[in-house]
Amino acid sequence: xxxxxxxxxxxxxxxxxxxxxxxxxGKVLHFALEDxxxxxxxxxxxxxxxxxxxxxTAIDVDIKLKSSVFLALLQGEDLTELLRQDKxxxxxxxxxxxLLVDLLQQIDIDLxxxxxxxxxxxxxHQAGKLGKTFKKSKNSIEALKDELxxxxxxxxxxxxxxxxxI
Amino acid sequence: MDKTTHFGFKDVVTDDKQSLVRGVFDxxxxxxxxxxxVLSFGAHRLWKRYTIASSNVKVGDxxxxxxxxxxxLAIKFRKKVGDSGQxxxxxxxxxxxxxxxxxxxNNGVFGVEFIQLNAQNIPFADxxxxxxxxxxxxxNITDKDQALAEMHRILKPGGCxxxxxFSKTDSELLKKFYDFYSFSVMPKLGGIIANDEDSYQYxxxxxxxxxxxxxxxxMVLDAGFSFCEYHNLSGGIVALHKGIKV
Lengths: 166, 246
What we know:
The complex is a heterodimer.
Chain A: H1 2-15, E1 28-33, E2 38-45, E3 48-52, E4 61-65, H2 67-74, H3 79-84, E5 88-91, H4 94-105, H5 111-119, H6 121-136, H7 140-152
Parallel strand pairs in A: 1-4
Antiparallel strand pairs in A: 1-2, 2-3, 4-5
Helix pairs in contact in A: 5-6, 6-7
Chain B: E1 4-7, E2 10-13, H1 14-28, H2 32-40, H3 43-54, E3 62-66, H4 72-81, E4 86-91, H5 94-106, E5 112-116, E6 129-135, H6 144-154, E7 155-166, H7 172-193, H8 197-209, H9 213-222, E8 227-233, E9 238-244
Parallel strand pairs in B: 3-4, 3-6, 4-5, 6-7
Antiparallel strand pairs in B: 1-2, 7-9, 8-9
Helix pairs in contact in B: 3-4, 7-8
């Protein structure tokens, strides 16, 4: 579901005219967070981005990093500096990777509003909370995991309450 | 000796399948939407909504909906592409297209074009469409590989193929319930509501003969698509395959 949310958010951004995909057009970028189950391909084509988990074809750029580094990137950390510190591994063209990072840094939209059109208000509210957590939280990883759990496997949330008396 | 293919659980001469399928849809066309709502408990609307949301279709895009029948997807695509875009609703069956036309008018949707065509021989030039969709239609096509190759041909580079189709569930419990429901309840309901038990027996059988998720994914990739992934819906009873031509 994460890649569906990501795809919707990125294409919303493109539709709003905030992004020129020209330089990324025709590129396939693999992006993996090593400590979270986020492993996706960004296929940039036809002035839109498809986010898939399929790994059956050649990629142009391979980006691997830890989630804490990703959050630092989203909060404006310089890619070159992170590369210098070996906190991010990039195989392929660094300029193309930089373009993707620039794009991800621009995801500052109300995911809730975008998604409610497609998936209903309650689900969108959960996704929106996820997006905001991603962008703002200082100790983001635990909060992110918690929100992902809520979003993806809502029933497991009931475990939080099962031992609590009325 | 004549080549054979399956029509539900029966083996039939390949050349006969198309007319047999036509007979099924001629028979159920007028009750098709009602039966979809009843048999899926309304879930088909959610499956289609998810399909549209996954399409990445934008204002100005050209979309071809194959086996589009009563036009559920076409209505939604029309809203997404706007006046500068183009949506073509197609079906091999004239009765289904007729129902689609009525449905669009009843929904106040105009500007959708209609064409009766066979998905194995699509009469459009190469690299024409941004999106091609087919919902609950692929399993009725005699030569699925040829149809997929055609879909690949008419898509632009960067175009997206969406296949929404019944599939296979991994859950043993769900499978048992689904088998009982498909073979014991669905045909009876088809008899009561659409006055056609045989067509809904065919529906249940054709679902079982349709390739599973992984097999269909391989077929999509073999047709030339650079990427294909699928999303199981309702526990795998239905799957959305999304292929991208790069």
